[in-house]
Amino acid sequence: MSLEWEQVMVDSADPEALGRWWAKALGWTVVNDAPEEFEIRPAPDRLPGLLFTTVPERKTIKNRLHLDFRPDDQEAEVARLLALGARHADIGQGEQPWVTLADPEGNEFCVLGSSPP
Description:
117 residues; 2 helices; 8 strands; four-stranded mixed β-sheet
């Protein structure tokens, strides 16, 4: 038996808008732009992807699963993501070497610091 990681599902109020935001943030490619199911991938034939689907309810609490990203330059990447529309998020993390942000619909993600030794 084998399993291949296909995608991460992201509940959203506006799959297209949120999917396009993440595509721009990550530099990924849109592979499905259906109104209620918007998918992006690193490249058309590369997995895993992010699949944004419509849900009627808005996000109300901290995510139980989130994405972590390790850029070459944390400060520059945080500034770029904030300029795209991300915002700082306080989920009780306190002072940490990573920066917690939220996408335009409030989904938290972290921008890590330099690579571990």
